[in-house]
Amino acid sequence: MQRVLFRPSKQTLVEYIEIEEPTHGRHFLCVSVAKNKLVQLCIVRCQISQTALKSGSKGSHTERSSIQECYRKAEVWSLQDLTLVDGRDADVDDPCFLLHFDKVRTVTAVSCSAKYSFVRALFVLSEQHCQKPLNLQNFDWAYITPTSFYSNRGDCVVLTQICFYALNLVCLSMCPVPLDA
Question: Which SMART domains match (predicted)?
Answer without folding.
Answer: Sec3-PIP2_bind
